[in-house]
Design goal:
Length: about 240
């Protein structure tokens, strides 16, 4: 009996085999509405960024030297578009894996006349590795990521020590990593990971959470949660070195 060969994921995929890899998200495609499909078809060349194009140059991309805010997982894009519209002196880049959300974000940005926003439809981990230069970001935003609330699924949570260090490298010194979650256990885990991570300072006066900044729009989901007595936890950590 011949010895079983062990192949890398890349080798197996090259041979046409499907390999299940761990992701911090579940891709729920859904159908595009006519408006989303129209936005993707007509405005992707203006607002869309492609992973295969590699490292970006934000000055060339936006035509200015304004600070850059990166949001990971913007959902349908409503709050991201609102933030970009309210802060025209900041350049925004959004990353989202779900195509309908990307289409909805582009459509809304066009409707609102937002020009300081670009978006990726891709996995954030790969975008950070291949497209975002080190020390290029003023802010990284991660709002309401999938909490993977079952303990056996905690390893799928995106906020892990390796991810936290990747974010630090992409931030300028003094740049801020801003997280928000409505799942208390995840908030506690985020806080623990950030407090033990080297090279960060907690911006909380109480060394834990911060009040929701005015720059983060209050979503309908969050408003409903407040009415029902649900909590939301914001964390802000600045790159120290």
């Amino acid at each position: 009996m011949s010895q079983r060969e062990h192949k890398t994921v890349e080798q197996a995929q090259a041979e046409g085999k499907y390999i299940r890899t761990v992701r911090s998200f579940v891709k729920r495609e859904g159908r595009l509405t006519k408006g989303q499909a129209h936005a993707l078809e007509n405005f992707w060349s203006e607002m869309g960024l492609n992973h295969e194009d590699g490292m970006i140059d934000s000055k060339a991309l936006f035509g200015n030297d304004n600070p850059v805010t990166l949001e990971i997982g913007f959902g349908m894009g409503k709050s991201l578009v609102e933030m970009a519209k309210n802060a025209p002196d900041i350049n925004f880049i959004g990353i989202e894996v779900h195509r309908p959300g990307v289409g909805a974000c582009i459509a809304l940005a066009q409707e609102k006349g937002v020009k300081n926003l670009k978006v990726y439809e891709h996995d954030a981990i790969e975008i950070l590795a291949d497209c975002i230069p080190e020390q290029s970001l003023t802010t990284v935003q991660l709002f309401f990521p999938d909490p993977w609330h079952k303990k056996k699924h905690h390893k799928r949570r995106i906020v892990q020590p390796e991810f936290v260090e990747t974010i630090r490298q992409k931030l300028k010194v003094g740049g801020v990593f801003h997280m928000a979650t409505d799942w208390e256990n995840y908030a506690e885990c985020m806080l623990e990971d950030m407090q033990t991570a080297p090279g960060y300072n907690n911006l909380s006066e109480t060394n834990d959470y911060v009040p929701r900044p005015d720059s983060r729009p209050l979503t309908k989901f969050e408003q409903r949660g407040h009415r029902l007595g649900h909590g939301v936890w914001d964390l802000q950590f600045a790159r120290a070195e």
